[in-house]
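Could someone model fe (ii) ion with this protein?
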Amino acid sequence: MHPLGKKTITSYQNHLPRRVCFGRGQLDHIVDRCKELDRSRVFVVSDTGVEAAGLLDVTLERLAESGLLCGSFAQIAPEPPIEQVDQLASLLKESQSDLVIAIGGGSVMDATKVAGVLAKHSGSARDYVGIGKVPSRGIASILVPTTSGTGSEATFVAILTDKSTGNKAGVVSPHLLADVAIVDPSLTDRLPVQITAATGMDAMVHALEALIAKCSTPLARGLALQSAGNIGWALEAVVQDPSNLRARDAMSLGSHLAGMSFANSSCCGVHALALPLGGRYPIPHGVITGTFFSEVMRLNASACAEEFGDFSVALGWGNLSTAEFCNRIETLAQSIGLFDQLHRFTIDADSIQDMAKDACANRRLMDPNPVAISEQSAQAIYRKLLKV
Ligand SMILES: NC(=O)c1ccc[n+]([C@@H]2O[C@H](COP(=O)([O-])OP(=O)(O)OC[C@H]3O[C@@H](n4cnc5c(N)ncnc54)[C@H](O)[C@@H]3O)[C@@H](O)[C@H]2O)c1
Ligand SMILES: [Fe+2]
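Reply:
Sure, complex below.
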């Protein structure tokens, strides 16, 4: 592999969390991490699923015993709406917290990233939607993923739901980067198998989109292939046997590396098509990206032969042709049940046109895609995959 493939890049920037603590048991040291940041009023954010899985109690106890805990909120909704992020920001302000800890999947981490900014600045999350609208860092943050999927603990993107437009809204700014990311695979040990499958496939999409994006950087390309080396064997293994802890570890690492990768490159067409659908229907993000993956890659194939080959080898699939590679992705999504999960939702045929329009209007995600995707092609993909 040439470090930049066929691309010519003359300049780039890289962004990473200030500190990453990876490994089983890392969350046990949460009090030390807070003290090292020299913060004394700590607020914990999560959701009901994570709380019910018993992943909050010990951390809340440790923080309370050390006198650091000033509040908690464990009600973040999946794919969080803008209004809820504004409410969370009010709670952070009322409690005068100077450090916020998110323990959860992408929904909890994304809501926390934006609320942490609002706690220091004025206004609504809506004011910060777009690229580079956040003026400076918010209160300090520690992000702790409990799914192996979004890699949000490593990125400076937060995706919120805008109920007024039915679309998803991205807040994008390096000021969202975590002070500390704690990636403790033990938190994923009892993640239900359907969520494991969907979030794991989302991580694979992040890695490949980061590799093929027109704006990929040398760091992103290396991270994407390392991510594939983990997810390639571990995703099917963990879906077959959710008690396989080696596979859980590899999925945690793979999704984190993929997050760092696309933070230093971009997601592309799969995510551009996913966001309008996820904003209108309560379909889990990874179910959408996982099922749209192969079809969008078929469109990209003519421009990505080298990258698909490298990625396929890194996954452990061998040097497949582009067609074989896309077929293999589709078979994987089928075999881990993602198409079954997608087809439980009924889609209104009238929404297809608007979704295709919104997808193509998302220049942040469409411009880096290696092949231009027209509204017509986007509509065709929606119709084929959603069976409308
Ligand atoms: N910021 C980014 O860079 C980025 C990237 C991709 C996706 N996203 C966004 O992230 C969100 C999706 O995040 P997600 O896929 O992690 O899912 P999620 O955070 O919505 O969680 C899905 C479900 O899993 C449950 N859950 C989480 N961890 C659990 C555990 N360990 N045990 C039991 N249940 C658990 C939650 O309670 C929830 O019900 C979407 O809004 C998506 O748009 C963000
Ligand atoms: Fe994603």
